[in-house]
Amino acid sequence: MDGSQASFTPEEICEQAKGNVGALSLLLLAYARDRGQQLEEAALFCGRIFAPGWDEVPARDARTAARWAALNMVSGGGELRRLEGDTRHAESVVGRWPLDEDLAFFGLSQQEADTFYGLFTPIAERLGLAYSWRRDGDDVTMTFSAQG
Predict the structure, then answer these.
(1) Among 8, 65, 88, 138, which is most buried by a count of CB atoms within 10 Å?
(2) Pair 97, 76: CB distance under 8 Å
(3) What is the structure's pLDDT at 147?
(4) N- to C-terminal Cα distance for the chain?
(5) Which of 41, 50, 25, 46 is nearest to 126 (CA)?
(6) Any residues with CB less than 8 A from the CB of 71 and at least 6 apart, and which?
(7) Which CATH architecture fits 8-146?
(8) How far is residue 21's CA from residue 114's CA, in Å, rounded to a whole number?
(9) What's the CA gap between 76 and 91, in Å, rounded?
């Protein structure tokens, strides 16, 4: 096969990238656990590193933060179920992340994988927002609220 025939469609690249992002998130947690580190701290570490990249989000804009958080989780394989709210309080609901087969591949429990949602805590703090998340079955609700 010559070089002109060796190409990938944008859809193939996007699908591969989505799988890689989700896998790297779980790999980080598996690595931290293997090293005896707190999984929560691994997620917070990532959040602190990524937080400056969120400076384009207007400070105290809960809706934009919830949208960006959902987009990040969807880019790793999740599915957007709901996004609602305003600049003071917003929620995004993401489902189907991670998949059971991905948990099994990395040897993680759902509870261990869920610690990754803590990633958005330092990001929210940088934006002047409060952040929390909760799992309800297959769905995870991420909530961002203006403080004060």
Answers:
(1) 65
(2) yes
(3) 83
(4) 62
(5) 50
(6) none
(7) 2-Layer Sandwich (3.30)
(8) 15
(9) 19
41-57 core/surface letters (b: 16 or more CB in 10 A; e: else): ebbbbbbeeebeebeeb
Of 53, 40, 37, nearest to 116 by C-alpha is 40
Tell me the average pLDDT of the chain.
Answer: 95
Output the CA–CA distances (angstroms, integers) from residue 5 to 14, 19, 41, in the order listed: 19, 24, 45
The domain limits of the chain are: 8-146
Of 5 and 90, the one with more pLDDT: 90
d(CA 113, CA 86): 29
| Rounded Cα gap, residues 86 and 146, in angstroms | 10
Closest CA to 117 of 65, 40, 50, 38: 40
